[in-house]
Amino acid sequence: MFGSHLSIAGGLENALTAAGDLACDCVQVFTRNQRRWSNPPITDDEVRRWTAGLAALGWNRGGPPRIVSHNSYLVNLAAPSGETRRRSIVAQRQELERCERLGIERCVIHPGAHLGDAPKAGTPHDLERPPSRDERRGLDRIVKALDRIHRELVGYRVVTLLETTTGSGSNLGWNFSHLAAIREAVAEPDRIGFCFDTCHVTAAGWDMTTPARARAVLERFDETCGLDRIGAFHMNDSKGAVGSRLDRHAHIGEGTCGSSCFGAICRDPRFADIPKILETAKETGPDGVPWDTINLERLRAFASRGRPAAPITPKTRRGRSSGGDSTEDRPSKVRRRTSTATAARATQKRSRDR
Ligand SMILES: [Zn+2]
Ligand SMILES: [Zn+2]
Q1: Domain ranges of the chain
Q2: Quick one: pLDDT band at residue 2, thresholds 50, 70, 90?
Q3: What's the 197 CA to ligand 1 centre distance in angstroms?
Q4: Confidence of residue 329 (pLDDT cuts 50, 70, 90)
Q5: Strand (E) positions, the chain?
Q6: What separation in Å is there between the alpha carbon of 169 and the centre of ligand 2?
Q7: Per the CATH hierarchy, to which homologous superfamily does domain 2-312 belong?
Q8: How confident is the model at residue 315 (pLDDT cuts 50, 70, 90)?
């Protein structure tokens, strides 16, 4: 399932209309103004219009969840006690209440920042080191916050998805072990799942730039967290280098994640029914085509190809940004130009298939 984070400006249901226009299979929304702490509760009328929007798309007939909510970036459940912590717990509880009213079954949050000692910006993470004392304290505070929220909201269907992060500043979640530790420690682990963001994972230092490396990272995630607990993917390429800890999203194929990263996720049948959401810039691309359309097309091409895709060469990227022939830039053509080991493997596989 492929979709995009879409705007609710003018009404929640507008995101659904836009999802239909873009031929999305799924969508992510902020159910509220994400820049404010407090928001008015959802009205009956909003629920009615939302439900009608779902029906118009045929998304009200059961099946795997297609809607993902993303909570405000202000929320920090790892914050030490004080105003931020108090407000964060209220905001997360209210977001789950909004999700439940709208029938949204998945709510993504960033785990939070412990606000203690953190590595200097620009220093890469040591992915093998155990959590520091400040990190352990932050993880513990997240667990306590989630337990409290879960105790207050008995019987809710919505699952909170902890997102992988780049680990800028003192943010937790750059190491898969952080996410696993939270889920293992909460009293109701079934209410916790994960969101895998390709940009964040790459910028955190998990290198997925070759098919073997992409496989190894997914295996590592499986051992640590469980791939079956991923409730959503964020499909973003990364402007920052592998390990840069920069959280800057690039269009698919235009960054440092590598086509093997997207290929490994998009063509894996285990993830077929998991929402894969673009969080890339809403710009107009070459020939006036919205970048969301181009990015969705690229992701779907990875899915339908069924074998590792070749890297998109820098030469192709230049051609595209200068407004070159866009069909020439499609990944399906690009992959024929490569001379890497990926192509050799693809050729071997093709001859095996015959
Ligand atoms: Zn994300
Ligand atoms: Zn991001």
Answers
A1: 2-312
A2: very high
A3: 5
A4: very low
A5: 2-5, 26-29, 67-70, 106-109, 112-113, 159-163, 171-172, 192-197, 230-235, 237-238, 249-250, 276-278
A6: 14
A7: Divalent-metal-dependent TIM barrel enzymes (3.20.20.150)
A8: very low
